[in-house]
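testing teh design pipeline on a random one, pls ignore if ur not involved
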């Protein structure tokens, strides 16, 4: 999919200029970006959530006499039931939702980062997709606040003198997803929040989550009619290897992003992959690695 605000970069310097464009805050006399970033390895990837991909066209749900909201509730309820009792820092539904997303459960959340270069990392990290143009979604969360419901959501931010929500603030706003969805059913809106520091991975990735106030609402469709709140930086395939190597020199590697032995293994596998490797060759290596691990 293409967007009205696509910007294709042609060099590393051009990338840096586009990533930090508009980040100077003259009132504060500091550089503070109003954007959060999401890197994707192919421009063909949309902003559908994992929950929406699980639902698909809804045909299976109709047979189950269900709905996306009911499916979301059932998945999260069972995750809470079977997860280790210390998996979540507190029994808030928002904490459990963050933990579930962090561990790969289908949810309505999308991952973002406040670090533009972490966004570049995720746009270039998959070697088997280096033949595809990548992209970095840039979401102006400050501009998007204009579309938040005034009386409750915006007021909650003002009371805390905060730019973003965190889990305790969300719990005051709405104890759970059902209450959150009831805030403004006529016009779904996106909200960006900071998850709890579950582990080093979230901290190192400077991670944030976005959530729509409906399990069926899509952020990319919301962007389409509000182009002023987003732009997308396109990284041509031919530049991906160079950008990936320069991130290595900045220590933005799998060892930092993922940590532990898993991160070390991911880094070494990519680091020693030949620069001219074909996607199908990389896929074979990954398949053999997975088979050996199991």
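output:
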């Amino acid at each position: 999919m293409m967007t009205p605000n696509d910007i294709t970069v042609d060099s590393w310097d051009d990338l840096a200029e586009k990533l930090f464009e508009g980040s100077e805050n003259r009132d504060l006399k500091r550089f503070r970006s109003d954007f959060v970033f999401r890197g994707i390895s192919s421009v063909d990837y949309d902003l559908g959530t994992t929950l929406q991909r699980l639902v698909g066209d809804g045909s299976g749900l109709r047979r189950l006499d269900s709905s996306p909201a009911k499916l979301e509730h059932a998945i999260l309820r069972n995750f809470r039931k079977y997860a280790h009792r210390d998996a979540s820092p507190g029994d808030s539904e928002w904490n459990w939702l963050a933990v579930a997303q962090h561990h790969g459960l289908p949810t309505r959340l999308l991952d973002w980062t406040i670090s533009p270069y972490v966004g570049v990392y995720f746009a270039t990290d998959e070697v088997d997709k280096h033949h595809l143009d990548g992209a970095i979604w840039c979401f102006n969360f400050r501009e998007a606040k204009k579309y938040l419901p005034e009386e409750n959501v915006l007021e909650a931010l003002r009371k805390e003198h905060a730019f973003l929500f965190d889990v305790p603030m969300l719990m005051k706003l709405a104890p759970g997803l059902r209450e959150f969805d009831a805030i403004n059913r006529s016009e779904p809106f996106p909200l960006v929040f900071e998850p709890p520091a579950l582990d080093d991975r979230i901290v190192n990735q400077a991670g944030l989550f976005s959530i729509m106030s409906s399990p069926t609402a899509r952020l990319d469709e919301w962007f389409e009619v509000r182009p002023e709140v987003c732009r997308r930086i396109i990284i041509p395939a031919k530049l991906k290897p160079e950008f990936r190597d320069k991130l290595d020199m900045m220590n933005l590697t799998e060892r930092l992003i993922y940590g532990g032995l898993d991160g070390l293994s991911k880094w070494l596998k990519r680091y020693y992959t030949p620069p001219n490797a074909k996607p199908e060759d990389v896929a074979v290596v990954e398949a053999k690695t997975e088979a050996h691990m199991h």
